[in-house]
Amino acid sequence: MSVVVVSTGGTIASTEDAGGDASPDLTGADLVAAVPGLDGVAEVTTHEFSSVPSPHLTVEDMADLAALVRDYGEDPEVEGVVVTQGTDTLEETAYFVDRCYGGETPVVFTGAMRNPSLASPDGPGNLLASVRVAAHPGARDLGVLVCFNDRVLAARHATKTHSMNLDTFRAPEFGPLGTVDEDRVAWSTRPAGRSPTHDIDRERLTNDVRAVTVTADMPEETLRGATDAAAVCLATTGAGHVPPGILPALGALADAGVPLVATTRCPEGRLARHTYDFPGSEASLRELGCYFADRNLQKTRIETVVALAADALEGTFDRPA
Q1: CATH class in words for 2-187
Q2: Does residue 11 have an active-site annotation?
């Protein structure tokens, strides 16, 4: 039995070049070799998936990674999978895989905020903790996890909260599922239940899902160019509210058959359903036929991409009447 480390690049795999700037160039084997004591936790093998900064990963890459993870999850000789990635889009890739992977074998995403060329790089510690989690029986059937700074988070809730601090990944409303204490994994809670996963059609996969953060008195033109989009995701203000000035543009999108998926731009909470009834309130979203999402904007977009590729918008999101 082994834990497979799938490396994709990112800060954890970056070193400084002659100009002093870092870029990914370390292999998964390099990352594993840099972690003292790792061989005492599990037998570790590596898989080189890519060596890129995380903003370079496409939805096609994410689909390939999800398929790879699924294959490893079905291998009886694999007890866990750890994916190393750059932190900028880690939560999006982890959530994409989570929406496509329904296996019991633990899958853990991790990375680093300080590259190995800097003082006190955090990558080796994050990788060691992630392998401990991936090899732990308590991690089975939890869906995809994120392990960072010894916190174990559900991919559905994990988000990057600070641009440079080591303690960046948090689950703002629901908190961690557990922690790594020395050589132990201490579980504090379990998710309420896993959402159904999707079997996507690669021919339907598209990145043309627009993500728009709603702001005060925003111009209608922000949305006018999206009538040919596969879908538009909106991070609305508060509990599902938008300036009335953009309602005509949203109506035009709805009339053009563009799916509208709404969430809140707040770091915690969900959309109201029947609290307000002013123009631009959640009542307007209902009249427009918007889907209501429970994740942040970046995850809502990923979930929309996956749902479109599986022809499953109706079963993925609520559409309150």
Answers
A1: alpha beta
A2: yes
